[in-house]
């Protein structure tokens, strides 16, 4: 029965791809179904080869500490790139094939000649192709960084800004084809600025580079639990897709529709490969995604936000990641000691995940900045701190991550339930972001800032 269902999914994908309506959107849906099937097909078949090459790791939150394949995000990213390349002739089909060739294919020479003439007359949308290819190049570049990170375990401070370099092709094409660097001023603030828009100039490109830096790293920081990296990426991708569909099916202007269609073309295959990866990364995980997937998925989301002209809206969907980054700042920047791994720990007796802690050595005086940070975060109930009642000195505190924050407030939890909880928070925040963007924003901004 499972084979019949599998063949049916393959057939559905092929039928959608081969649709005689020549609809790029419909073909992209079919291609995304094939991307899911291809990812789910290859991952279990290449796992042993990855282990032989040293791409493996132990699942620390299991009693038996099994060794399983790692860096499976490389498989997802490669399938994604193949889909993106195969989609190019589909996306630009109507420009590559003359109209008469679809109805009268009897004279191939005439058809070929007319086709070249069509392209030569500048009817071909070179700006769209440039934007599409720049997106693929940026995503490919960051995926290579992820592979290098999995290979050589690059230090955080060395790799943090590298996504900005990977985003250079995208930013250059944005400058050449769009060049929009202004932002709308909220209605209430316009009397102070005495204008409806403010041109940020070069600062806008710095902002977009910051988005390209933040998205991959933020996905990578929320990690260490089976399915959480792929799960959060899947939820954010679905929310982004909903945002795109609102624009496409309730069009405000042609430019908005075109921008969000491009976003859909990039996000649907991501959902396909992520679902295929999550099938094997879900608890109990049979593979690890590796840093490759985190950088790859994060960059795809950053790219669609930039090319779709909704990078500010995208940040609403990344509120859990922003919260996690702010929460992690004390350990990331050395205010509090940061262990190599901050993932929750398994209670062998109960089979549940509990908070992981940073221990403070007895007899070693703590810096003032550490004590102030601990007291401040404890006051806001962001961390749990165990104090020595005699010396009034902290003994240990929970690690500064959103995963430990959730466990601190909910108590011990089974690993898959913890992942579902994080995904639930991500979904709730995403829906809240959509409500803000399409409910409150029109009251603050008189017109859409596409």
Report on the architecture of this protein.
This protein is mainly alpha-helical. The chain has a domain at 2-99 and 124-329. It is 66% helix and 7% strand. It contains 20 helices and nine strands. It has helices at 2-17, 24-52, 73-91, 93-96, 99-103, 108-120, 126-152, 156-159, 162-166, 168-177, 190-193, 202-221, 228-249, 254-281, 290-307, 311-317, 319-332, 368-379, 402-410, 415-444, and strands at residues 56-58, 67-69, 182-184, 197-199, 345-347, 352-354, 357-359, 385-388, 393-398. The protein has a three-stranded antiparallel beta sheet with strand order 7-9-8. A hairpin with a 4-residue loop joins β8 and β9. The chain crosses the membrane at residues 34-51, 72-93, 129-148, 160-182, 202-222, 262-280, 292-310, 316-336, 418-436. Its EC number is 2.7.8.15.
Write the layout of secondary structure elements.
Elements lengths: L1 H16 L6 H29 L3 E3 L8 E3 L3 H19 L1 H4 L2 H5 L4 H13 L5 H27 L3 H4 L2 H5 L1 H10 L4 E3 L5 H4 L3 E3 L2 H20 L6 H22 L4 H28 L8 H18 L3 H7 L1 H14 L12 E3 L4 E3 L2 E3 L8 H12 L5 E4 L4 E6 L3 H9 L4 H30 L6
């Amino acid at each position: 029965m499972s084979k019949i269902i599998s063949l049916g999914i393959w057939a559905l994908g092929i039928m959608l791809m081969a649709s005689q309506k020549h609809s790029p959107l419909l073909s992209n849906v079919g291609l995304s179904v094939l991307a899911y099937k291809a990812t789910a097909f290859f991952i279990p078949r290449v796992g042993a080869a990855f282990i032989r090459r040293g791409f493996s790791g132990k699942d620390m939150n299991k009693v038996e500490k099994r060794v399983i394949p790692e860096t499976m995000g490389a498989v997802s990213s490669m399938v994604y790139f193949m889909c993106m390349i195969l989609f190019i002739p589909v996306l630009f089909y109507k420009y590559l094939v003359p109209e008469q060739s679809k109805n009268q294919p009897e004279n191939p020479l005439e058809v070929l000649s007319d086709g070249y003439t069509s392209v030569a007359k500048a009817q071909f949308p070179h700006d769209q192709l440039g934007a599409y290819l720049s997106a693929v190049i940026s995503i490919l570049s960051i995926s290579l960084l992820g592979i290098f990170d999995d290979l050589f375990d690059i230090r955080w401070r060395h790799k943090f800004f590298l996504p900005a370099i990977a985003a250079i092709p995208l930013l250059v094409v944005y400058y050449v084809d769009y060049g929009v660097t202004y932002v709308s001023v909220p209605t209430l603030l316009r009397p102070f600025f005495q204008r409806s828009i403010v041109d940020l100039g070069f600062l806008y490109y710095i902002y977009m580079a910051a988005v390209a830096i933040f998205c991959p790293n933020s996905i990578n920081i929320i990690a260490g639990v089976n399915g959480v990296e792929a799960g959060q990426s899947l939820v954010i991708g679905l929310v982004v897709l909903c945002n795109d569909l609102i624009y496409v099916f309730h069009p405000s202007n042609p430019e908005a529709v075109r921008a969000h269609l491009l976003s859909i073309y990039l996000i649907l295959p991501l959902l396909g490969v992520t679902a295929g990866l999550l099938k094997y990364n879900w608890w109990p995980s049979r593979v690890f995604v590796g840093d490759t997937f985190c950088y790859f998925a994060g960059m795809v989301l950053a790219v669609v936000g930039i090319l779709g002209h909704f990078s500010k809206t995208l940040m609403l969907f990344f509120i859990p990641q922003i919260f996690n980054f702010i929460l992690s700042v004390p350990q990331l920047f050395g205010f509090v000691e940061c262990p190599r791994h901050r993932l929750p720990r398994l209670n062998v007796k109960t089979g549940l995940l509990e908070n992981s802690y940073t221990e403070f050595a007895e007899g070693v005086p703590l810096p003032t900045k550490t004590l102030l940070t601990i007291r401040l975060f404890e006051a806001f109930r962001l961390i749990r701190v165990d104090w020595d009642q005699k010396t009034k000195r902290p003994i240990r505190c929970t690690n500064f991550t959103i995963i430990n924050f959730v466990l601190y407030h909910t108590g011990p939890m089974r690993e898959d339930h913890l992942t579902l909880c994080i995904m639930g928070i991500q979904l709730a925040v995403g829906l809240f972001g959509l409500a803000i963007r399409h409910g409150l924003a029109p009251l603050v901004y008189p017109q859409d800032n596409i």
